[in-house]
Amino acid sequence: AIQLGVAAYAASQAGTAARAGARTEASVDARGSGESNARDAVSDWVEDGGFEYRRTGGRDITVTVEVKVPSIVPGLDDWTAKRSATMPNEHVGSGF
Fold first, then answer.
1. Is residue 96 part of a domain?
2. Phi/psi of residue 66, nearest 5 degrees
3. How many independent structural domains does the chain possess?
4. Digits of tens for pLDDT over the chain (96 positions)?
5. What CA–CA distances, in Å, run from 85 to 2, 6, 7?
């Protein structure tokens, strides 16, 4: 049960990171890079296990973040949590 709670927490962290990254990538007023803001949105102990960031888009920006679920049960060390977020691209039409 505890491992499932950790998995749910990691999934929540991935979603938060994806939203932070997408918001940054899509905004004309954002500071920093999408990936750095996404990493900042994740707890260190989740990020340390593995963190993948992917950005796609044109009119809309989609960011996908995948993190490794920290394992507290031996043998359950290959779980990952992947979440995506999409934001309208404010750069469209501005030469971006």
1. no
2. -125, 130
3. 1
4. 799 999 999 999 999 999 999 999 999 998 999 999 999 999 998 888 889 999 999 899 999 999 999 888 888 888 999 999 999 999 876 554
5. 27, 21, 19
Does a structural domain hold residue 93?
no
* CA nearest neighbour of 81 among 13, 23, 35: 13
Domain of 44?
2-88
Query: 19-37 b/e with 16+ CB inside 10 Å = b?
Result: bbbbbbbbbeeeeeebbeb
Q: For the full predicted model, state whether its pTM sits above 0.85.
A: yes
